[in-house]
Amino acid sequence: MNETQKISWTDLALSPEMMKLIEEVGYDYPSDVQAQTIPLALEGKDVLVSSQTGSGKTASFVIPTVEKFKNKNGTYILALAPTREIAQQTGDIFRKFGEPFGMQVAVCIGGADMNAEKAALAQSPHIIVATPGRLCDHLERGNLWLDFIECLIFDEADRMLEMGFSKQIDIITEQIPKARQTLMLSATFAPQVEKLARKAMNNPSQVIIAKTQSSTPKIDQMLFWLPEERKLSKLVDILKEEKGTVFIFVNSKEKTFQLTRLLNHRGIKDVTYIHSDLQQEHRELAVADFKSGKFRIIVATDVMGRGIDVDDVAHVVNYDVPKEAADYIHRIGRTGRRGLTGHASTFAIPGKDDKAIEAIAKLRGKAAPAKPVPGEKRVQERRPRSQAPRTYRPVAPKRSPEVVTPVVVAEVKKVGLIERIKNFFSKQK
Ligand code: AMP
Fold first, then answer.
1. Between 159 and 185, residue with greater pLDDT
2. Which of 208, 192, 199, 202 is nearest to 160 (CA)?
3. Between residues 104 and 241, the one the model is more confident about
4. Both 304 and 267 in a single domain?
C-alpha cells in the first residue's frame, strides 16, 4: 500500500498468528496510519486518528483490537460507523481478521432484520459493529448491554456527528464503563469532533496522517460557474469526453434518481444511483454493479458516496457544491489515487454557491477564487474573452487546471488540538 514505508509488520509487536494472517490477507507493509496507530492501540492508549478513507484506517483499529481480545470470550469491542455500508465494510474486515481466531462479529444496521440482529447479539459476539441509531434501538429494546465493552471505536466520527448522531453517541458512550480504551478516527477535526474527543476520551495520543509526497494524488480541479439549467448539458459534455469511471455527487436523495433519469434521456445509459432511502439490497446491487463495471457512472449523495469503497474513480463531478466544505475534500479524494492523475469538476451557481466555494478555498488553504459580483450579469463558462463582462472570469480556466499537491504530514503528538488541526489543513497547499 505504501511502497516507501520503512516500517514493516515485524516492527509492530504483533503475535506470530496475526503476522501469518496479515501475510495471507496480502498486506505487504503497514500503511502509515497502521504503522502509527497499531503500537499505540496495542499499548492500550486512547488514540485520536486523522486519516482519510483509503489509507488503510480500518485495519489500523481492527488488527490491534483483534490482537488484544482474540483469546477472550464475551463482547469486548464496539465499533460505531456512520452508514450501513461503512458498518458492513468494517464488519467484513473484522471478520477477515477475527474469524480465524474464532471471533464472532455482529453487524447492526438500519434496514436489516431486527430479529436476526437480536439473535446475533444474544450469542455474545466478540465484536459489534453498528450505526448509532440502530444500536440505540437495540438498547431501548433491551437486546444488549454495554457494560462489558472494553474498547469503543468511533469510525468516521466527523461524519457521524454531521449526520446528527450526537445524541445517540452520548447515550451509547454513557453506558460503557469509563475504564475503557477509545479509538476515534475522523477525516477532519471539526470543533464538534474535538468536543466529543474531550468528552469521550482519556488523554488520547494523536495520529495525523496526510498523504505522503510519493503517494500524493494529483487532481485536476475545475470549477465551472454556471446556472442550474446549464448543469445537465455541461455534465453530458463531460461524460461524453470522459471514458473512465465517474462519481457524481448531488445534495439530495431525489436528485440522484432524477439526474440518472435525465442522463438516460440524453442517451447515457451506463449510470446508476444510490441514496439512503433505497432498500439495502438495491444499494448493494448498485455498488456491486458500479464496482464490476456494469455501470460506469454512479450518482450519489455524500452519505452514500462516503461508504463506497472504490479507489480508482477517473473523474468526480460535484453536480452540486457540497454543503460542508470538508465534504469537498472527501468527495474529490475518490479520484487521483494509485499514482494516477484524477479529475474533479465542480458546478457552482453564481450568487448561490459563492460562500460555499469560498469556504472550500479556505479549507484548502487557497486564496478564495474570483467570484461573481452579486446583482450583475453572470459569465457563462467558455464565453469568449471579448464577450465576458469585465467583473468576472471563470475561476479555473479549462486549460490551466489547478493541481492539488498536499504535503507530508505524519506525526504523533499528545492532543494539543486546535492549532495542530488548523496547521494540518493549511499545510495541504
Ligand atoms: P480503508 O482506508 O480502511 O478503507 O482501506 C482501503 C483499502 O486498503 C481496503 O481495500 C483495504 O483492504 C486495503 N488495505 C488496508 N491496509 C492495507 C495494507 N497494509 N496493504 C495493502 N492494502 C491495504
1. 185
2. 192
3. 104
4. yes
